[in-house]
């Protein structure tokens, strides 16, 4: 039965991608829509079981690993200041707008702040795939989006631990622990990066590199993802950092080529289809008005917070708009924060449906808009 359902997922991914290519839209859009169609809330052909969830997680980890491998480390360092400013703008404005919208609908201030934290999250997996498809991932805008998204996630994790401490006083100490863990991860990543880059250039600088080095690179990616998750940072951040480290080594192309073969043939399509399968369309109308308001706030928050900050950082008007659009999608990060809110009884079921609608809409509308912005 597993093999049959896996076949259905891959057929759906290929068919959805084919239709979107014919319509000159990003492939990922068709895969997401096909996931919704074959998922439990519509046709019910496949359910997002734990096995598919694990394959999906591996798919997004490899996607971010490849994005890291294709990133120029020097350009990433140069864009560090602008990425930080863009990330700060992309967190502050959505939180302010989220609190305002929540208070307007009669929510408590703590609920409003929690919803604001959800709106501040950025899921760049959709953006990464779209930029890769149109060959814009290595542009200055693409590198800045990736850098800002990593910083965005770190700020979001710190804010989440802070608001959790307010709701559960016993967890206040956890705020400092979270900060220490995050710092520890990035110190570990910097040390590991320096060691690996120097050793690789010394050992492989003048040798023919075997294709088997891709296995070593993949293991390093998985280990970095594991360590980052254990230290409170998203696994996809660890995978992206691992890719950046290996991008400065002589075997970068070997690792990238082999990883892409595995990822784009099997795991990445599974990720996007399974993401669509998780959407329950039956609950999207539970609080549709608040959902529409959240969607508007989510889009405006990133366009203003990231786009305007990018403009102030030296990007021209078109580039700033592209960066703002690239930061719009909310996905697994927002879902994780929402799940915590449900467990803390901060996010009521009606609000949960509205948040799901916002996440789905930002995920679906971003690929075609982002593609058109580069036309």
In short:
The chain is mostly helical and 375 residues long. It has helices at 2-22, 27-38, 50-69, 73-78, 80-104, 109-120, 125-133, 140-167, 172-204, 213-230, 235-247, 252-277, 288-312, 317-326, 332-343, 349-373.
Commentary on this structure:
The protein has one domain (2-373): Up-down Bundle (Na+/H+ antiporter like fold). Helix 1 crosses helix 12 (252-277), helix 5 crosses helix 8 (140-167) and helix 9 packs parallel to helix 11. The chain is an all-alpha fold. The chain has helices at residues 2-22, 27-38, 50-69, 73-78, 80-104, 109-120, 125-133, 140-167, 172-204, 213-230, 235-247, 252-277, 288-312, 317-326, 332-343, 349-373. The model has no long low-confidence stretch (mean pLDDT 83). 79% of the residues lie in helices and 0% in strands. The chain is built from 16 helices and no strands.
List the helices and strands and how they pair.
Layout: H1 2-22, H2 27-38, H3 50-69, H4 73-78, H5 80-104, H6 109-120, H7 125-133, H8 140-167, H9 172-204, H10 213-230, H11 235-247, H12 252-277, H13 288-312, H14 317-326, H15 332-343, H16 349-373
* Number of beta-strand segments: 0
Q: Main sheet?
A: none
* CATH-defined architecture: Up-down Bundle
Low-confidence runs (pLDDT<50, min 5 residues)?
none
Total helices: the number is 16
Domain module count: 1
The level of helicity is: over 70%
Which structural class matches the secondary elements? mainly alpha
Which H/E pattern describes the elements?
Answer: HHHHHHHHHHHHHHHH
Mean of all residue-level pLDDT scores: 83
Overall geometric form: globular
The CATH topology, please?
Answer: Na+/H+ antiporter like fold
Strand content: under 5%
Q: CATH class, anyone?
A: Mainly Alpha
Give me the Rg, rounded.
20 Å
The N- to C-terminal Cα distance equals: 43 Å
């Amino acid at each position: 039965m597993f093999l049959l359902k896996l076949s259905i997922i891959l057929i759906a991914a290929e068919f959805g991608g084919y239709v979107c290519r014919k319509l000159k839209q990003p492939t990922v859009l068709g895969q997401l829509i096909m996931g919704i169609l074959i998922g439990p809330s519509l046709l019910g052909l496949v359910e997002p079981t734990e096995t598919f969830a694990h394959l999906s997680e591996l798919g997004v980890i490899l996607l971010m690993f490849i994005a890291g491998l294709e990133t120029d480390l020097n350009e990433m360092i140069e864009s560090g200041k602008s990425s930080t400013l863009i990330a700060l703008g992309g967190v502050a404005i959505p939180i302010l707008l989220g609190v305002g919208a929540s208070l307007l609908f009669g929510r408590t201030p703590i609920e409003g702040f929690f919803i604001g934290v959800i709106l501040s999250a950025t899921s760049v997996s959709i953006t990464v795939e779209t930029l890769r498809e149109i060959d814009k991932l290595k542009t200055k805008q693409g590198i800045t989006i990736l850098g800002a998204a990593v910083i965005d996630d770190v700020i979001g994790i710190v804010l989440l631990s802070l608001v959790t401490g307010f709701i559960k006083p016993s967890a206040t100490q956890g705020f400092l622990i979270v900060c220490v863990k995050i710092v520890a991860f990035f110190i570990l990543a910097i040390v590991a990066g320096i060691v690996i880059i120097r050793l690789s250039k010394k050992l492989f600088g003048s040798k023919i590199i075997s294709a088997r080095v891709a296995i070593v690179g993949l293991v390093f990616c998985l280990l970095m993802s594991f360590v980052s998750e254990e230290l409170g940072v998203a696994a996809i951040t660890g995978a992206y950092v691992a890719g950046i480290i290996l991008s400065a080594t002589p075997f970068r192309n070997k690792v990238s080529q082999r990883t892409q073969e595995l990822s784009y043939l099997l795991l990445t399509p599974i990720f996007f289809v399974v993401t669509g399968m998780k959407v329950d369309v039956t609950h999207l109308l539970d609080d549709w008005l608040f959902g529409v308001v959240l969607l508007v706030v989510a889009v405006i928050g990133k366009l203003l917070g990231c786009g305007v900050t990018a403009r102030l950082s030296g990007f021209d008007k078109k580039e700033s708009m592209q960066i703002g659009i690239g930061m719009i999608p909310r996905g697994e990060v927002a879902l994780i924060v929402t799940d915590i809110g449900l467990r803390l009884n901060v996010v009521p079921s009606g609000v949960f449906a509205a948040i799901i609608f916002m996440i789905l809409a930002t995920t679906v509308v971003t690929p075609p808009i982002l593609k058109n912005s580069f036309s």
